[in-house]
Amino acid sequence: MSESHYHILLFIHILSSVVWVGGAALLQVLAFRAERSQDSTRIAVFAGEAEFVGTRVFLPTTLILLASGIWMVVGGPPAATETWIKIGIAIYALSALTGMLFLGPESKRIETIVEAKGATAPEAIARIKRIFVISRIEVLLLFFVVFDMTYKPFS
């Protein structure tokens, strides 16, 4: 792979990271504001918007991030055995599994509850708050990945 090709992939990879991590951090700020409002309707509306962003922005962005990262490792300088890459892939996998096995299905359950019982249903609000907690942990892990990719510890 040529150096210019590698740098194009690196740009795509970093841009995808910025969208994902920055977007996730912004959603946490907005989630915090919604929670502090004590307005169940606002919290439910926010949760719906977050689910929309998750499936239509974060999912494709993370797939582009993964593809560009793999392409750089396969076609670029030998680094695939580096611990910092393994850490990044492990946290990516954990995030993907969290989305597929918890966040996505839980969002659908919340949507069903909101349609049946309304946005202020205590069960819906409790589930939304649980998603907020898991999402905050995920954002912290994403910050660690940025640190990992920047400083390359354990190398």
Folded structure, characterized:
By secondary structure, the protein is an all-alpha fold. Helices cover 88% and strands 0% of the residues. It has helices spanning 3-37, 40-75, 83-117, 122-151. Helix 1 runs antiparallel to helix 2 (40-75), helix 1 packs antiparallel against helix 4 (122-151) and helix 2 runs antiparallel to helix 3. The longest helix is centred in the middle third of the chain and has 36 residues, at 40-75. The mean pLDDT is 90.
Please sum up the structure shown.
The chain has helices spanning 3-37, 40-75, 83-117, 122-151. With 155 residues, it is mostly helical.
Report the span from N to C terminus: 23 Å
> Which stretches of 5+ consecutive residues score pLDDT under 50?
none
Count of DSSP strands: 0
Estimated share of beta-strand residues: under 5%
The whole-angstrom Rg is 18 Å
Instruction: Assign the structural class, choosing from mainly alpha, mainly beta, alpha/beta, alpha+beta, or little secondary structure.
Output: mainly alpha
Helix tally?
A: 4
Can you tag this structure with a few keywords?
0% strand, 155 residues, single chain, mainly alpha, 4 helices
Question: How are the secondary structure elements laid out?
Answer:
Elements: H1 3-37, H2 40-75, H3 83-117, H4 122-151
Helix pairs in contact: 1-2, 1-4, 2-3, 3-4
